[in-house]
Amino acid sequence: MPTNLNYSFNFGILLIFVWLIQILSGVFLVFYFNLSSNIFFSLNFLFNDVFFGNFLRYLHCIGANLFFIIIFLHIFKSYFYSNFRVRFVSLSGSIIFFLLCGIAFLGYVLPWGQMSFWGATVITNLLSIFPLSNIFLFYIWGDYSVSFVTMLRFFSLHYLLPFILGVFIFFHLNLLHLFGSSSSSLVFTIDLITFFPVYVFIDVFAVLVFFFFLAYFLFFKNFFFFESENFLFANNLVTPNHIKPEWYFLFPYAILRVFTSKSLGVIFLVLSIFSFFIISFYDYFFNNFFIFIVIFIFFFFLFTYLGGQIVAFPFNFLSENLTFFFFLIILFFFFFNYLKNFYSY
């Protein structure tokens, strides 16, 4: 191992650790998960009558949010340190990220609160832009609209997909050992040390720091990541005044609601998500790549903030203009990178 690795290289081991916490807490939650039409009220039973039931739900919810915080830090770190030799590692990581987004969305629907129900309604209705969408939506919902049957299907997928995620994590780690990690760009000398004991103790220290933050939210800020609207039972006759997803989906959501056309909104929503994937094809050594990454991260935080605001001036005005400049910058750097590679040959 190179001697000049910093603490940002501990994000990978933290992600595996949090993934295991989510698996274990999820399995214990399933023991008390009532798959019936009164699932919302069964959560009250979990909170009030099950020993440490509230602890389990807080742990699972807070763990999911910390998972996304760490994975975004892990992605941004990989952008700064990566090189062309680890492109396959980056691509496999992108697949894991997309799969994780799907798992998080499915899990968000399960409490069957107001925001869960309307979030599922809005997202699944995005498929209506495709031909024969009515048939697809009927098989996804299992009904003519989002209902209890839909929740059963989402629960089955939410329980299954984390184990499939584990398979992709295994392949990601194997590609990491085959092609090297982003730390390969830091090795300029033969000044290397063994993994044990130095980096083992650094990993343990990183896990202890993570436990500190987890304990803080778990015991002092346990409702910090909960949405107030989701404490109300799902009602298909009453739409919340302000529908918004979890904070880790606000980046594409802010771009989606810019467009009055549903088709355009879905297209640019998909493009915004795939922007994480597209960057893996860029030449990491072209001169302005660092500037591009800084701009990309800056836009990410801006859209995350704007996505959580109401659709009114000046937030909608800023979202519209920033969306235009965001995709313009991505196109500019894409063609700049393409022309550089073309003329280099």
Q: Any key phrases for this structure?
A:
globular, single chain, Cytochrome Bc1 Complex, Chain C, 345 residues, 12 helices, mainly alpha, 2 domains
Radius of gyration: 22 Å
Individual helix count: 12
- Following the backbone from N to C, one meets helices and strands in this order, namely HHHHHHHHHHHH
User: What's the number of extended β-strand segments?
Assistant: 0
The profile of the biggest β sheet is: none
The overall pLDDT, averaged over residues, is: 85
Low-pLDDT runs of 5+ residues are none
How much helicity do the residues have?
55-70%
CATH architecture of the largest domain, by name, is: Up-down Bundle
- Number of structural domains: 2
CATH third-level topology of the largest domain: Cytochrome Bc1 Complex, Chain C
Counting helices, strands and paired strands, the structural category is: mainly alpha
> Please, what is the CATH homologous superfamily of the largest domain?
Cytochrome Bc1 Complex, Chain C
CATH level 1 name of the largest domain: Mainly Alpha
Shape: globular
Main location: mitochondrion
Domain Cytochrome b/b6 N-terminal region profile: 1-185
Family: Belongs to the cytochrome b family.
Membrane topology: Multi-pass membrane protein
Describe this structure in words.
It is found in: Mitochondrion inner membrane. Belongs to the cytochrome b family. Its main location: mitochondrion. Keywords: Electron transport, Heme, Iron, Membrane, Metal-binding, Mitochondrion, Mitochondrion inner membrane, Respiratory chain, Transmembrane, Transmembrane helix, Transport, Ubiquinone. InterPro entries: Cyt_b/b6_C, Cyt_b/b6_C_sf, Cyt_b/b6_N, Cytb/b6-like_sf, Di-haem_cyt_TM. By secondary structure, the chain is mainly α. The chain has 2 domains: 240 residues, Cytochrome Bc1 Complex, Chain C, CATH 1.20.810; 102 residues. Helix 1 packs across helix 8 and helix 3 packs antiparallel against helix 4. The model has no long low-confidence stretch (mean pLDDT 85).
